[in-house]
Automatic annotation (TrEMBL):
Top-level taxon in the UniProt lineage: Eukaryota
Provenance organism: Odontella aurita
Swiss-Prot/TrEMBL keywords: Calcium
Highest classification ranks of the organism: Eukaryota, Sar, Stramenopiles, Ochrophyta, Bacillariophyta
Protein name per its UniProtKB record: EF-hand domain-containing protein
Biased amino acid composition, Basic and acidic residues: 1-20, 505-518
Keyword Calcium part of the UniProt annotation: yes
Amino acid sequence: TEMGKEFDTLANQKDTRDTKMTSASAKGLGKSSPSKSSPAKPPPITPTDDFADFDACFSSLSQETDEARLSRSRSWSIVDANGNDLASLAEVDRWIKVALMSHCENKERGGAIWRQFRPAYLRAFKRARDVAPDEGNAKGAQAELDGDEFISKKEFRLLVGFLCTYARMHDAFQVIDSSTTDDCGKAIASLEKLQDDRRIERQEWLCNYQKVSAHGLVALSGISNPEAVFDAMDADKGGMVLFGEWCRFLEESEVNAGTDMGKMFISATEGKKKKTAILRQSLAQDLTMEVEISAMGPTEELEKFLACFEELTAQNQEGREARGAEWSLIDANANGLASLAEVDGWVSQRLVRSFGEEVGGNLWRLFRPSFILAFNRGKILAPTIDVGSANTDTTTDDYISKAEFRPLVAYLCVYARMLDAFSIIDGGGAGVDANDDRRIELREWIEGYGKVASHDLAGLVGIVDPQEVFMEMDADGKGMVLLGEWCQYLEKKEVEAGTEMGKEFDTLANQKDTRDTKMTSASAKGLGKSSPSKSSPAKPPPITPTDDFADFDACFSSLSQETDEARLSRSRSWSIVDANGNDLASLAEVDRWIKVALMSHCENKERGGAIW
């Protein structure tokens, strides 16, 4: 296919290039022993003029003198233009560009240097932001703790120091990566194919390592065994050194040598550990003192959702009849199985039947994240049977069977209740707004845990130490609780408390263990997979791509074509994505553009938003 040709072309280009590199290396270009008649080596290349200008622009700001402090204060006021005492990577990046243009007194020259060393900025930013704990309010502390997306004024001096350090490392990296000659100045044809590809291959290193011995970096001076050094730098043994590997190797060498640069790296590492501990402790204390918590109870939306589905969980004749009628709506093709898509569609239809198009549709969207949790819980109760064709491994574990329908509905209600409590804390209140990011940070939890004490969930009642509970919920230790972690914690607490809900979860776990044991035993006897009988019902015809996808594809596919019209359209679209004109787009910027484009294409905000 056309798509296949794209993938194949890329693979062939890589194979061809690798073959040429291997061939060139085999002919003696990888490493050769210098003969006695070899011309004298030229002196090593000092840092480039680009780096000299970069260093001259920023290095003085990292000094600990009164003059440097005054200069840093002025620079910080430019970086922190909104006066919130924090600076994002985008703000730092913009300040670097402006500072270089001003220093060089030439926009083109300053802009060129800014682009040249840009790969170093992210590493410097990440290193510096780990050092100084915020001494302001809890919001500032949480902003740093939640992912350290900003640097504070106290971290600004180290940021500048790291900018100069990583720019120096990048300068040496570029000297080798861009070279087409060996240490003696002899042109090497094979190096032309390797230059400026943002990685250093073994041949490039062996031909050029002496050129960077005067860059002021311990690991690059006095090298006696370049092969061994390359192997040490190539951490993943991929046959090449990327900029990240290069920096990590140079950092470690500086630390081991005890240089001033190495001490700076040690300071950042120790600072991160201390900062995290201080922030967690102060944040919990401050918020516990300042937050007045009032219980909210389940939302009106949850009450409506439960009213719609709880009647189907009754274990009596009326409940069985109601479930039978609803199952016939889900299992339209009468194969005794329902997929997640069919369950999702049925939930939507039942809510709309009960509450009307607008209210029912809103309830469906609001609780939709819980449906897959309920589906995955319910589908593992009945025995597994192979329902695939000769070319597929599909089993009933990919579907809900009629026997699993009542537990499925029960789990829909359980996980909707858990999601309702999650949503109240996420963003600080009921409903969905710009503050809801589908994760709960420590601040949100401490501010909101009391609001959900009436949700009839054992894990949310009688909390004495909210910080300790948060740490238990945060299973992966990343400083945030996702919906999956939230539900796992609440399930465990229901089981420990011996509630009716907990007994359901415990019974399910036991049934699954028993079923898995039987399956393992059957498989050992050769009964693991049976061929479908000839009397199996015919497969329904495949479904063509949905209308949603058709609209999505119509909105964007033309932009990927290689025509003049498509290029013009891409240029216009890029100007919308790259609103700040920095020639880069983050995931958030791309996501926002997709949403706007779909709303415009559909000429309907609701329709476009739903597809997005």
